[in-house]
Amino acid sequence: MSMRTSTESVSDAVQDRQRARTARGVGGRAAPGASRPAPPRRRRPAFALLGVLLILGGAALAGLLALRMDSRDPVLVLRSDVPAGTEITRDLLGQTNVASDSDLIVPVGALSSVLGTYSRVPLNEGQLLDTSMLVRTNPLGGGRVAEVGVPLVEGRVPDGLDSGDLVRVVRIGESGEPGTPLALALVIQPPVSSSGGGVLGGGGDAKGSAATLLVPIEVADAIVDAAGNNRIGMSLVDRGVAVTDSERLRSLAGDR
């Protein structure tokens, strides 16, 4: 009897120790539902450094853009198309802000220095005014050249005729007679139709188109006469000719 009692006491003591060990998580199976301790998080210094660099880089870029915006200066810009040989007046000019290191672009503060100059080439609306586009003396002065307005007929002039085009002007012959060369002339105002269309060959009423030519003074009357009798024809010689290149204009009268 005493031996069994002693054995039961030992067994009870062993079970008590096992329950205590299990409660402490030592040995045996963990109690159902018991949460395992979370593993320690690893720190990633490279990713943290990259984030910091991105933030600093974005701030620097934003600062640079803001500085660039602040460094823009007001400069002169054309408010409309300006044919070659036109006097530059205040109403032709507006202003815009740009960032540029060019010494040719005219700042708003230098407006008075360009008033009264003349365009040596055709200028377009929205174009920044550039001193290389201007001349001080009137290219139409000197009595050597004249402006002549001529009506144009489709099929007798090149398509897409525009300011700065050098053309050969011919009086078309009658009754099978050969034509008469009149001049090498410069288109200074592009053909515009009477119905408001654009350049000849680009739409609009071609029959109502007319252009202004810069011609040698000695053949101006002959060109006016040929234009009045609807006998004008032209061929394209060159494009992008400045109005100051007056030496390229010459009389062809007498050439056959």
Can you walk me through this structure?
- With 256 residues, this protein is an alpha+beta fold.
- Among the domains are: 73-135, Alpha-Beta Complex (Type Iii Antifreeze Protein Isoform Hplc 12), CATH 3.90.1210.10; 145-251.
- Helices cover 24% and strands 23% of the residues.
- The strands form 3 sheets. Strands 5, 6, 7, 8, 9 and 10 form a 6-stranded antiparallel beta sheet that branches. It has a two-stranded antiparallel ribbon with strand order 1-2. Strands 3-4 form a two-stranded antiparallel sheet.
- A hairpin with an 8-residue loop joins β6 and β7 (180-192).
- The radius of gyration is 44 Å and the shape is elongated.
- The termini are far apart.
In short:
Residues 73-135 form the SAF domain. The protein is an alpha+beta fold.
Query: On the 0-100 scale, what is the average pLDDT?
Result: 79
Classification by helices and strands = alpha+beta
Strand content: 15-25%
Query: What series of H and E elements makes up the topology?
Result: HHEEHEEEEEEHEE
Level of helix content?
Answer: 10-25%
Region (Disordered): 1-42
Transmembrane segments: 46-67
Keywords: Membrane, Transmembrane, Transmembrane helix
Organism: Aeromicrobium flavum
Please outline the helices and strands:
Layout: H1 2-24, H2 45-70, E1 73-78, E2 93-98, H3 111-114, E3 118-119, E4 134-135, E5 145-151, E6 166-171, E7 180-192, E8 210-216, H4 220-228, E9 232-238, E10 250-251
Antiparallel strand pairs: 1-2, 3-4, 5-8, 6-7, 6-9, 7-8, 7-10
